[in-house]
Write a structure and sequence with these properties.
Blueprint lengths: L2 E6 L6 E6 L2 E7 H5 L9 H10 L9 E4 L11 H7 L6 H13 L16 E2 L5 E4 L2 H10 L6 E7 L6 E9 L2 E9 L4 H11 L8 H7 L6 H7 L3 E4 L2 E4 L17 H7 L11 H29 L3 E5 L6 H4 L2 H4 L4 E3 L9 H13 L20 H10 L5 E2 L3 H10 L4 E4 L13 E5 L6 H10 L8 E5 L3 H4 E2 L11 E5 L1 H4 L11 E7 L5 H14 L3 E6 L11 H10 L4 E4 L2 E4 L1
Parallel strand pairs: 1-4, 4-6, 7-12, 12-13, 15-22, 17-20
Antiparallel strand pairs: 1-2, 2-3, 5-6, 7-8, 8-9, 10-11, 14-23, 15-16, 16-21, 17-21, 18-19, 19-20, 22-23
Helix pairs in contact: 5-13, 8-10, 15-19
Amino acid sequence: MTAILGINCSGYHSSACLLINGQIAAAITEERITRIKQDKSFPTKAIRYCCNTANISLTEVTDIFIGWNPAYYMHRSDNMLHNAMKDRGKVSYLALNELALLNNTPLNGGAQMAIHQEIETISTHWRIHFVDHHEAHAANGFFQSAFQKADALIIDGFGEVSSGFAGTITHGGVKIYAVNRTPHSLGLLYTAFTDFLGFKPNGDEWKVMALASLGDPAIYYDLIRPMVKVDGVRYEVDLSFFESFLYFTPHYYSPKLVELFGDPLRCGAVLTEREYNIVAAVQRVTEETIFELLTNLHQQTGNENLIVGGGVFMNSVVNGQLYDKTPYKDIFIGGSPDDSGISVGSALFGSNYVLAEKTNIPRSQHNSFGKTYTNETIEAELKQRKLRYHMIDDPAQVAAMHIWDKKIVGWFQGASEFGQRALGNRSILADPTDPKTKDLVNATIKYRESFRPFAPAILAERQPEIFVSKTDQTSYFMEKVFSFQEDWKAHVPAVVHFDGSGRLQTVARDVTPLYYEMIAQFEALSDTPIVLNTSFNVNGMPLVETPGDAINCFYQSGIDTLIIHNYIVEK
């Protein structure tokens, strides 16, 4: 047996992933365990969770791969690191110290700094490797795609010294054609406008994406389009409008952007047509930049397959257009293109390129990499809380009946999903046919802005007749937005966005059979093969992980029914 860990401790979505014999045995973000939203601390608890889930000891782990390479900063003095690099180079010291504490072993005084795949030994058990951040993003997509060869476009806010790259990836390695150097970053441009509109940068970008459908992109397009210039498979941003790279400034945007558009919006202020139109133009420019880069990359390589990664590809509106707006015939995005997936990508990078284990993973259709809790564990938790509950033989049928009865259902089944999206194991479910459902869930459970849409989870075989798509696409990870067919928009108002679209989840019988059966049972009652699916949490709370988390969320919110494996609790 070979057991290796991948770690993300880059400052966003700390996480850990355990591979055993080249296969993903467990993966989780630190926030799921600590219950601190977007926990940035070192993923100590996530590491222990992965080992406990796979029933192995930390001492059985041989190699640890960290998805941030501090070698780029080691030529600078500590003083320069502190002042100029904001301590990014100290990721290495943080990682080594925390891992030593986990192992109860002091650092080896003779250790040498690792560069890429070179090895640093800090104990008798582990070899520590540092992986380039964006190559970890690429590995996360590629080794779950089942491709033998693919083009890769990685775009995020920033990595060690860049904001992504364009290249080609195979089982033999990564070939990079162009690197976009920080601070030229499409991700940071999007974040700057998130900041300008009064939202939280590096957290609320999906709110901006949702707002874009309310505006007219043509109003401000001619002002925003020149801010990004594409040159082949590279791009540059007009940095005079942005200041994310200046650590002493309070905002991601510059005074010049304020001069162009007027005063920024205060947090919580009422949005107006100006904000809708600005964000619509930002979304349009983002889309066009990505499509142009990919068209140019395809012209250079001629490859038919594509993987994409980095936080920018959490933009499901962009993702839904990739097939139609680029020449690629097969595209894989995956369930965690953001930084949470860096732990998975680092482990897969190390397994294949460093240890030569040659991962053979079928094309990924799920990310249920967490722990499965037994009925005995769940009942013990229910008894300890002194709750009234009873056992049910058919959770799918009971859930469907409650949803059809206009109840909002907390659905806790199987292994928890990795990443930021609930895909039917840690979900809140509701009736999409009731026009009141969206506002009810937003107001009594999610406590969030009314303009944010909910996802339609749809039976796979019914998707082509309900959604508009030029190709026979799937969206297993809720990663794409498509338009509804016209005759379905009025039928499922709770999951139709303002522009007639939906960020759908394709539900296949052989991937999540119980979840599929529940939707099929709902269709039998309602003639609708769709349920509203949103993550099992309230605003500001990470997705629930344990039965105890689910019970807490149930009683802190307006959820009517909790179905947790074969047990039901009602208010």
